[in-house]
Write a structure and sequence with these properties.
This protein is an all-alpha fold. The chain is about 85% helix and about 0% strand. It is built from 3 helices and no strands.
Length: about 90
């Protein structure tokens, strides 16, 4: 346990921030799972719908520094490659 008052406060803050970040990361994982399901099902309309929701969530997470901006760009790039590959096959 922290000995100083300010250390105790920093610990409380980091725990609270960690919980908020976990909520955002969990929602990103949920959206990505739904997107994967639509890709596997070869459903173009659903994949595009989930991809727009996922891109919006990724951008918000990057804006809040929950994920790094280059990580966000990489994830969005890979996401769009999958959507575009789906378009050409169907």
């Amino acid at each position: 346990m922290p000995q100083l008052k300010q250390s105790a406060k920093r610990l409380r803050q980091s725990i609270k921030r960690g919980q908020k970040n976990k909520i955002v990361k969990d929602s990103l994982e949920y959206l990505f799972r739904q997107f994967k399901k639509s890709i596997i099902a070869n459903d173009k309309a659903k994949a595009e719908d989930w991809s727009t929701k996922l891109i919006k969530a990724i951008d918000k997470a990057a804006q809040k520094n929950i994920i790094k901006k280059n990580t966000a760009a990489r994830k969005k790039s890979r996401l769009m490659k999958k959507v575009n590959a789906l378009k050409t096959t169907k």
